[in-house]
Amino acid sequence: MSHNESIEKLVSHLFRQEAGKMTAILIRLFGFSMISLAEDIVQDTFLSAYTSWPYGDIPDKPEAWLMQVAKNKAINALKREARNISLPNSAFVSDKENSLTQYIEQAFTEKDTLDAQLKLLFLCCHPQLNDKQQIALTLQVLSGFSLQEIASALLMEKEAIKKMLFRAKQEIKDKGLSAYSGYTLLSMQRQEMVRHVLYLMFNEGYKTTESKELINIDLCFEAIRLGKIVLASGNDATAGETQAMLSLMFFNVARFSTRTNNEGGIISLEKQDRSLWDNALINEGYYYLNASRNSTTLTRYHLEAGIAALHCSAESFEQTNWQQVLFYYDQLIKIDSSPIITLNRAVAVYHVHGVSPAMKELERIKNTRLGNYYLFHATKAAFLVKAGQHKKAIQYYRQAINLANSTLDKQFLYHKIEECRSMAN
User: Fold this and answer.
1) Are residues 64 and 123 in the same domain?
2) How far is CA 380 from CA 265, 271, 363, 375, in A?
3) Which residue of 36, 110, 200, 356 is 20 to 30 Å from 228, comparing CA positions?
Protein backbone atom coordinates (compact mmCIF):
# COMPACT_ATOMS: atom_id res chain seq x y z
CA MET A 1 0.00 0.00 0.00
CA SER A 2 1.43 3.40 -1.01
CA HIS A 3 1.96 6.31 1.40
CA ASN A 4 -0.99 8.24 -0.07
CA GLU A 5 -3.24 5.17 0.07
CA SER A 6 -2.33 4.65 3.73
CA ILE A 7 -3.19 8.26 4.51
CA GLU A 8 -6.47 8.01 2.62
CA LYS A 9 -7.40 4.90 4.60
CA LEU A 10 -6.43 6.58 7.89
CA VAL A 11 -8.42 9.74 7.14
CA SER A 12 -11.46 7.67 6.12
CA HIS A 13 -11.22 5.75 9.40
CA LEU A 14 -10.91 8.98 11.40
CA PHE A 15 -13.86 10.49 9.54
CA ARG A 16 -16.06 7.62 10.73
CA GLN A 17 -14.68 7.98 14.23
CA GLU A 18 -14.59 11.76 14.67
CA ALA A 19 -16.95 13.46 12.19
CA GLY A 20 -20.09 12.77 14.21
CA LYS A 21 -18.46 14.15 17.36
CA MET A 22 -17.41 17.33 15.55
CA THR A 23 -20.82 17.83 13.98
CA ALA A 24 -22.55 17.42 17.35
CA ILE A 25 -20.26 19.96 19.02
CA LEU A 26 -20.63 22.49 16.21
CA ILE A 27 -24.41 22.19 16.09
CA ARG A 28 -24.48 22.73 19.83
CA LEU A 29 -22.36 25.86 19.34
CA PHE A 30 -24.16 27.27 16.30
CA GLY A 31 -27.68 25.84 16.63
CA PHE A 32 -29.33 23.40 14.24
CA SER A 33 -30.36 26.24 11.94
CA MET A 34 -26.67 26.50 11.00
CA ILE A 35 -26.22 22.77 10.31
CA SER A 36 -24.88 23.46 6.81
CA LEU A 37 -22.11 25.59 8.31
CA ALA A 38 -21.29 22.82 10.82
CA GLU A 39 -21.12 20.22 8.06
CA ASP A 40 -18.94 22.48 5.92
CA ILE A 41 -16.47 22.93 8.78
CA VAL A 42 -16.26 19.17 9.30
CA GLN A 43 -15.66 18.57 5.58
CA ASP A 44 -13.03 21.34 5.45
CA THR A 45 -11.28 19.88 8.51
CA PHE A 46 -10.85 16.47 6.91
CA LEU A 47 -9.93 18.06 3.60
CA SER A 48 -7.09 19.78 5.44
CA ALA A 49 -5.82 16.37 6.53
CA TYR A 50 -6.09 14.98 3.01
CA THR A 51 -4.14 17.89 1.55
CA SER A 52 -1.46 18.39 4.21
CA TRP A 53 -0.60 14.94 5.62
CA PRO A 54 0.76 13.45 2.35
CA TYR A 55 3.47 16.15 2.27
CA GLY A 56 4.63 15.88 5.86
CA ASP A 57 4.53 13.69 8.92
CA ILE A 58 1.21 12.36 10.17
CA PRO A 59 0.56 13.95 13.59
CA ASP A 60 1.34 11.77 16.62
CA LYS A 61 -2.24 12.31 17.76
CA PRO A 62 -4.25 12.72 14.55
CA GLU A 63 -7.59 12.92 16.40
CA ALA A 64 -6.34 15.84 18.48
CA TRP A 65 -4.94 17.51 15.33
CA LEU A 66 -8.33 17.27 13.62
CA MET A 67 -10.17 18.62 16.65
CA GLN A 68 -7.78 21.58 16.87
CA VAL A 69 -8.33 22.39 13.20
CA ALA A 70 -12.09 22.16 13.76
CA LYS A 71 -11.81 24.49 16.77
CA ASN A 72 -9.87 27.07 14.75
CA LYS A 73 -12.40 26.91 11.93
CA ALA A 74 -15.25 27.21 14.45
CA ILE A 75 -13.72 30.36 15.94
CA ASN A 76 -13.34 31.90 12.48
CA ALA A 77 -16.92 30.94 11.60
CA LEU A 78 -18.32 32.46 14.80
CA LYS A 79 -16.51 35.72 14.09
CA ARG A 80 -17.70 35.72 10.49
CA GLU A 81 -21.30 34.70 11.26
CA ALA A 82 -21.68 36.65 14.51
CA ARG A 83 -24.92 38.28 13.37
CA ASN A 84 -26.55 34.95 12.49
CA ILE A 85 -25.51 32.90 15.53
CA SER A 86 -26.94 33.44 19.01
CA LEU A 87 -24.46 32.67 21.78
CA PRO A 88 -25.04 32.80 25.55
CA ASN A 89 -23.77 35.88 27.34
CA SER A 90 -21.15 33.68 29.04
CA ALA A 91 -19.37 33.39 25.71
CA PHE A 92 -18.44 37.07 25.90
CA VAL A 93 -17.06 38.50 29.10
CA SER A 94 -14.58 41.38 28.95
CA ASP A 95 -12.05 40.19 26.42
CA LYS A 96 -14.18 39.11 23.46
CA GLU A 97 -11.36 37.35 21.60
CA ASN A 98 -10.16 35.28 24.56
CA SER A 99 -13.61 34.53 25.97
CA LEU A 100 -14.80 33.27 22.58
CA THR A 101 -11.81 30.92 22.38
CA GLN A 102 -12.43 29.67 25.94
CA TYR A 103 -16.10 29.09 25.14
CA ILE A 104 -15.20 26.92 22.17
CA GLU A 105 -12.46 25.08 24.08
CA GLN A 106 -15.05 24.17 26.73
CA ALA A 107 -17.40 22.82 24.07
CA PHE A 108 -14.68 20.42 22.88
CA THR A 109 -14.03 18.80 26.28
CA GLU A 110 -14.82 15.10 26.57
CA LYS A 111 -17.82 15.59 28.90
CA ASP A 112 -19.42 18.24 26.70
CA THR A 113 -18.68 16.20 23.56
CA LEU A 114 -20.61 13.20 24.92
CA ASP A 115 -23.48 15.40 26.01
CA ALA A 116 -23.63 17.11 22.61
CA GLN A 117 -23.75 13.77 20.80
CA LEU A 118 -26.52 12.44 23.03
CA LYS A 119 -28.66 15.54 22.52
CA LEU A 120 -28.09 15.53 18.75
CA LEU A 121 -28.91 11.81 18.60
CA PHE A 122 -32.24 12.43 20.30
CA LEU A 123 -32.95 15.48 18.16
CA CYS A 124 -32.46 13.41 15.02
CA CYS A 125 -34.90 10.88 16.47
CA HIS A 126 -37.52 13.51 17.30
CA PRO A 127 -41.10 12.11 17.35
CA GLN A 128 -42.39 14.83 14.99
CA LEU A 129 -40.19 13.36 12.26
CA ASN A 130 -41.30 10.14 10.62
CA ASP A 131 -39.36 6.92 11.16
CA LYS A 132 -37.36 7.05 7.94
CA GLN A 133 -36.50 10.72 8.44
CA GLN A 134 -35.21 9.93 11.93
CA ILE A 135 -33.07 7.05 10.72
CA ALA A 136 -31.67 8.84 7.67
CA LEU A 137 -30.88 12.01 9.62
CA THR A 138 -29.02 10.14 12.35
CA LEU A 139 -27.03 8.10 9.88
CA GLN A 140 -25.95 11.18 7.93
CA VAL A 141 -25.43 13.78 10.67
CA LEU A 142 -23.97 11.69 13.50
CA SER A 143 -22.22 8.91 11.62
CA GLY A 144 -21.23 10.36 8.28
CA PHE A 145 -23.13 7.87 6.12
CA SER A 146 -23.17 8.69 2.43
CA LEU A 147 -26.46 9.16 0.60
CA GLN A 148 -25.91 5.82 -1.17
CA GLU A 149 -25.31 3.96 2.10
CA ILE A 150 -28.50 5.41 3.58
CA ALA A 151 -30.44 4.61 0.41
CA SER A 152 -29.24 1.00 0.52
CA ALA A 153 -30.08 0.64 4.21
CA LEU A 154 -33.60 2.02 3.75
CA LEU A 155 -34.22 0.37 0.36
CA MET A 156 -34.83 3.75 -1.28
CA GLU A 157 -33.42 5.69 -4.22
CA LYS A 158 -30.49 8.01 -3.54
CA GLU A 159 -32.35 11.07 -4.85
CA ALA A 160 -35.33 10.29 -2.61
CA ILE A 161 -33.00 10.15 0.41
CA LYS A 162 -31.49 13.51 -0.55
CA LYS A 163 -34.94 15.13 -0.67
CA MET A 164 -36.06 13.46 2.55
CA LEU A 165 -33.00 14.71 4.44
CA PHE A 166 -33.56 18.24 3.17
CA ARG A 167 -37.19 18.16 4.34
CA ALA A 168 -36.26 16.70 7.73
CA LYS A 169 -33.65 19.38 8.39
CA GLN A 170 -36.06 22.08 7.24
CA GLU A 171 -38.78 20.74 9.53
CA ILE A 172 -36.46 20.90 12.55
CA LYS A 173 -35.54 24.49 11.70
CA ASP A 174 -39.08 25.67 10.91
CA LYS A 175 -40.66 24.07 13.99
CA GLY A 176 -37.78 24.92 16.30
CA LEU A 177 -37.53 21.31 17.48
CA SER A 178 -35.06 20.41 20.20
CA ALA A 179 -33.82 17.26 21.90
CA TYR A 180 -36.11 17.97 24.85
CA SER A 181 -39.29 18.85 22.94
CA GLY A 182 -41.95 16.24 22.26
CA TYR A 183 -41.20 13.36 24.63
CA THR A 184 -38.51 13.80 27.25
CA LEU A 185 -34.97 12.85 26.37
CA LEU A 186 -35.14 9.70 28.49
CA SER A 187 -38.60 8.52 27.37
CA MET A 188 -38.99 4.89 26.31
CA GLN A 189 -40.33 5.92 22.88
CA ARG A 190 -37.31 8.10 22.09
CA GLN A 191 -34.83 5.49 23.31
CA GLU A 192 -36.46 2.74 21.25
CA MET A 193 -36.18 4.81 18.08
CA VAL A 194 -32.53 5.50 18.82
CA ARG A 195 -31.86 1.79 19.36
CA HIS A 196 -33.57 1.01 16.06
CA VAL A 197 -31.28 3.47 14.27
CA LEU A 198 -28.15 2.05 15.89
CA TYR A 199 -29.25 -1.51 15.09
CA LEU A 200 -29.67 -0.53 11.44
CA MET A 201 -26.30 1.21 11.49
CA PHE A 202 -24.61 -1.89 12.86
CA ASN A 203 -26.26 -4.14 10.28
CA GLU A 204 -25.08 -1.84 7.47
CA GLY A 205 -21.51 -2.14 8.77
CA TYR A 206 -21.86 -5.89 9.36
CA LYS A 207 -22.51 -6.37 5.66
CA THR A 208 -21.66 -3.11 3.97
CA THR A 209 -23.40 -2.10 0.73
CA GLU A 210 -20.90 0.44 -0.61
CA SER A 211 -17.54 -1.27 -0.39
CA LYS A 212 -15.59 -4.04 -2.01
CA GLU A 213 -15.07 -5.39 1.51
CA LEU A 214 -17.71 -7.44 3.29
CA ILE A 215 -17.50 -5.62 6.61
CA ASN A 216 -17.20 -1.95 7.53
CA ILE A 217 -15.77 -2.30 11.03
CA ASP A 218 -15.86 1.47 11.64
CA LEU A 219 -19.64 1.58 11.25
CA CYS A 220 -20.12 -1.35 13.61
CA PHE A 221 -17.98 0.17 16.35
CA GLU A 222 -19.64 3.55 15.79
CA ALA A 223 -23.00 1.90 16.52
CA ILE A 224 -21.53 0.37 19.67
CA ARG A 225 -20.03 3.72 20.71
CA LEU A 226 -23.35 5.52 20.33
CA GLY A 227 -25.13 2.65 22.07
CA LYS A 228 -22.89 3.14 25.10
CA ILE A 229 -23.73 6.85 25.09
CA VAL A 230 -27.44 5.98 25.17
CA LEU A 231 -26.83 3.51 28.00
CA ALA A 232 -24.97 6.20 29.95
CA SER A 233 -27.96 8.54 29.65
CA GLY A 234 -29.36 6.91 32.76
CA ASN A 235 -32.81 5.58 31.84
CA ASP A 236 -33.03 2.49 34.05
CA ALA A 237 -36.39 1.50 32.55
CA THR A 238 -34.86 0.81 29.15
CA ALA A 239 -31.28 -0.01 30.13
CA GLY A 240 -31.87 -3.75 29.69
CA GLU A 241 -32.94 -3.29 26.07
CA THR A 242 -29.86 -1.22 25.26
CA GLN A 243 -27.63 -3.75 27.04
CA ALA A 244 -29.17 -6.59 25.02
CA MET A 245 -28.56 -4.67 21.80
CA LEU A 246 -24.92 -4.08 22.77
CA SER A 247 -24.56 -7.75 23.66
CA LEU A 248 -25.75 -8.76 20.19
CA MET A 249 -23.30 -6.35 18.59
CA PHE A 250 -20.33 -7.62 20.59
CA PHE A 251 -21.09 -11.28 19.85
CA ASN A 252 -21.14 -10.43 16.15
CA VAL A 253 -18.00 -8.29 16.02
CA ALA A 254 -16.14 -11.08 17.82
CA ARG A 255 -16.39 -13.17 14.64
CA PHE A 256 -15.32 -10.49 12.15
CA SER A 257 -11.80 -11.77 11.50
CA THR A 258 -13.11 -15.16 10.40
CA ARG A 259 -15.91 -14.05 8.09
CA THR A 260 -13.59 -13.53 5.10
CA ASN A 261 -10.51 -15.27 3.72
CA ASN A 262 -7.23 -13.65 2.66
CA GLU A 263 -8.73 -12.74 -0.72
CA GLY A 264 -11.76 -11.11 0.90
CA GLY A 265 -14.10 -13.96 0.01
CA ILE A 266 -16.98 -14.90 2.31
CA ILE A 267 -16.55 -17.76 4.78
CA SER A 268 -19.84 -19.23 6.03
CA LEU A 269 -20.46 -19.66 9.77
CA GLU A 270 -20.19 -23.43 9.32
CA LYS A 271 -16.59 -23.17 8.04
CA GLN A 272 -15.24 -20.37 10.24
CA ASP A 273 -12.22 -21.09 12.44
CA ARG A 274 -13.69 -20.61 15.90
CA SER A 275 -10.28 -20.59 17.54
CA LEU A 276 -9.78 -17.16 15.94
CA TRP A 277 -12.93 -15.63 17.41
CA ASP A 278 -12.13 -12.75 19.77
CA ASN A 279 -12.77 -14.04 23.30
CA ALA A 280 -12.45 -10.57 24.83
CA LEU A 281 -15.32 -9.30 22.67
CA ILE A 282 -17.35 -12.45 23.37
CA ASN A 283 -16.91 -11.80 27.09
CA GLU A 284 -18.15 -8.24 26.51
CA GLY A 285 -21.20 -9.77 24.87
CA TYR A 286 -21.84 -11.99 27.88
CA TYR A 287 -21.35 -9.04 30.23
CA TYR A 288 -24.09 -7.02 28.55
CA LEU A 289 -26.33 -10.08 28.06
CA ASN A 290 -26.19 -10.89 31.77
CA ALA A 291 -26.83 -7.25 32.65
CA SER A 292 -29.83 -7.17 30.29
CA ARG A 293 -31.60 -9.93 32.23
CA ASN A 294 -32.77 -7.34 34.77
CA SER A 295 -35.08 -5.97 32.07
CA THR A 296 -38.81 -6.40 32.60
CA THR A 297 -39.42 -6.48 28.83
CA LEU A 298 -38.36 -9.25 26.45
CA THR A 299 -37.26 -7.64 23.18
CA ARG A 300 -35.92 -8.80 19.84
CA TYR A 301 -32.49 -7.68 21.05
CA HIS A 302 -32.62 -10.13 23.97
CA LEU A 303 -33.63 -13.00 21.69
CA GLU A 304 -31.16 -12.22 18.91
CA ALA A 305 -28.39 -11.82 21.49
CA GLY A 306 -29.38 -15.20 22.93
CA ILE A 307 -29.09 -16.78 19.48
CA ALA A 308 -25.70 -15.15 18.91
CA ALA A 309 -24.53 -16.36 22.33
CA LEU A 310 -25.44 -19.95 21.44
CA HIS A 311 -23.30 -19.73 18.29
CA CYS A 312 -20.40 -18.22 20.23
CA SER A 313 -20.57 -20.83 22.99
CA ALA A 314 -20.66 -23.87 20.68
CA GLU A 315 -17.27 -25.55 20.22
CA SER A 316 -18.20 -26.40 16.63
CA PHE A 317 -21.01 -25.70 14.18
CA GLU A 318 -22.30 -29.24 14.63
CA GLN A 319 -22.44 -28.83 18.42
CA THR A 320 -24.65 -25.73 18.22
CA ASN A 321 -27.78 -26.10 20.35
CA TRP A 322 -30.14 -25.76 17.38
CA GLN A 323 -33.14 -26.78 19.47
CA GLN A 324 -32.58 -23.73 21.67
CA VAL A 325 -31.89 -21.56 18.60
CA LEU A 326 -35.24 -22.62 17.15
CA PHE A 327 -36.95 -21.88 20.49
CA TYR A 328 -35.56 -18.34 20.42
CA TYR A 329 -36.74 -17.89 16.83
CA ASP A 330 -40.19 -19.14 17.81
CA GLN A 331 -40.31 -16.38 20.44
CA LEU A 332 -38.77 -13.81 18.11
CA ILE A 333 -41.32 -14.40 15.36
CA LYS A 334 -44.06 -13.41 17.82
CA ILE A 335 -42.39 -10.01 18.11
CA ASP A 336 -41.23 -9.64 14.51
CA SER A 337 -42.88 -11.84 11.89
CA SER A 338 -41.01 -10.21 9.02
CA PRO A 339 -39.95 -12.45 6.11
CA ILE A 340 -36.24 -12.19 6.99
CA ILE A 341 -36.90 -13.56 10.50
CA THR A 342 -39.00 -16.33 8.96
CA LEU A 343 -36.13 -17.12 6.58
CA ASN A 344 -33.63 -17.35 9.45
CA ARG A 345 -36.06 -19.50 11.41
CA ALA A 346 -36.31 -21.87 8.43
CA VAL A 347 -32.57 -22.52 8.74
CA ALA A 348 -33.04 -23.45 12.41
CA VAL A 349 -35.99 -25.67 11.43
CA TYR A 350 -33.73 -27.51 9.00
CA HIS A 351 -31.11 -28.22 11.66
CA VAL A 352 -33.74 -29.53 14.08
CA HIS A 353 -36.33 -31.23 11.85
CA GLY A 354 -34.69 -31.72 8.46
CA VAL A 355 -35.14 -30.60 4.87
CA SER A 356 -38.87 -31.20 4.25
CA PRO A 357 -40.19 -29.05 7.18
CA ALA A 358 -37.63 -26.35 6.33
CA MET A 359 -38.76 -26.23 2.69
CA LYS A 360 -42.35 -25.81 3.88
CA GLU A 361 -41.23 -22.77 5.86
CA LEU A 362 -39.79 -21.26 2.68
CA GLU A 363 -43.04 -21.91 0.81
CA ARG A 364 -44.83 -19.71 3.33
CA ILE A 365 -42.78 -16.66 2.37
CA LYS A 366 -42.01 -17.18 -1.32
CA ASN A 367 -44.75 -14.72 -2.37
CA THR A 368 -43.54 -11.96 -0.03
CA ARG A 369 -40.98 -9.29 -0.98
CA LEU A 370 -38.39 -11.82 0.20
CA GLY A 371 -39.10 -13.84 -2.93
CA ASN A 372 -36.92 -11.32 -4.78
CA TYR A 373 -34.16 -11.45 -2.17
CA TYR A 374 -31.05 -13.38 -3.16
CA LEU A 375 -30.70 -15.11 0.23
CA PHE A 376 -34.16 -16.68 -0.14
CA HIS A 377 -33.03 -18.52 -3.28
CA ALA A 378 -29.58 -19.27 -1.84
CA THR A 379 -31.17 -20.79 1.26
CA LYS A 380 -33.51 -22.91 -0.86
CA ALA A 381 -30.53 -24.05 -2.91
CA ALA A 382 -28.67 -25.04 0.26
CA PHE A 383 -31.64 -27.15 1.40
CA LEU A 384 -31.79 -28.84 -2.00
CA VAL A 385 -28.10 -29.68 -1.74
CA LYS A 386 -28.80 -31.39 1.60
CA ALA A 387 -31.56 -33.35 -0.13
CA GLY A 388 -29.14 -34.47 -2.83
CA GLN A 389 -30.87 -32.43 -5.59
CA HIS A 390 -27.71 -30.76 -6.88
CA LYS A 391 -28.88 -29.83 -10.38
CA LYS A 392 -31.99 -28.14 -9.02
CA ALA A 393 -29.89 -26.40 -6.37
CA ILE A 394 -27.69 -24.92 -9.12
CA GLN A 395 -30.78 -23.34 -10.71
CA TYR A 396 -31.64 -21.57 -7.45
CA TYR A 397 -28.04 -20.48 -6.89
CA ARG A 398 -28.14 -18.90 -10.36
CA GLN A 399 -31.34 -17.05 -9.43
CA ALA A 400 -29.62 -15.84 -6.28
CA ILE A 401 -26.64 -14.57 -8.33
CA ASN A 402 -28.99 -12.60 -10.60
CA LEU A 403 -30.55 -10.91 -7.56
CA ALA A 404 -27.37 -10.28 -5.55
CA ASN A 405 -25.81 -6.80 -5.67
CA SER A 406 -22.49 -7.47 -3.98
CA THR A 407 -19.57 -8.86 -5.96
CA LEU A 408 -18.50 -10.84 -2.89
CA ASP A 409 -21.96 -12.41 -2.62
CA LYS A 410 -21.86 -13.37 -6.28
CA GLN A 411 -18.39 -14.91 -5.90
CA PHE A 412 -19.58 -16.92 -2.89
CA LEU A 413 -22.60 -18.21 -4.84
CA TYR A 414 -20.47 -19.13 -7.86
CA HIS A 415 -18.28 -21.14 -5.50
CA LYS A 416 -21.40 -22.92 -4.22
CA ILE A 417 -22.34 -23.83 -7.80
CA GLU A 418 -18.90 -25.34 -8.33
CA GLU A 419 -19.34 -27.37 -5.14
CA CYS A 420 -22.70 -28.62 -6.42
CA ARG A 421 -21.17 -29.68 -9.73
CA SER A 422 -18.39 -31.60 -8.01
CA MET A 423 -20.88 -33.37 -5.74
CA ALA A 424 -23.18 -34.19 -8.67
CA ASN A 425 -20.39 -35.95 -10.59
Assistant:
1) no
2) 21, 19, 10, 8
3) 36
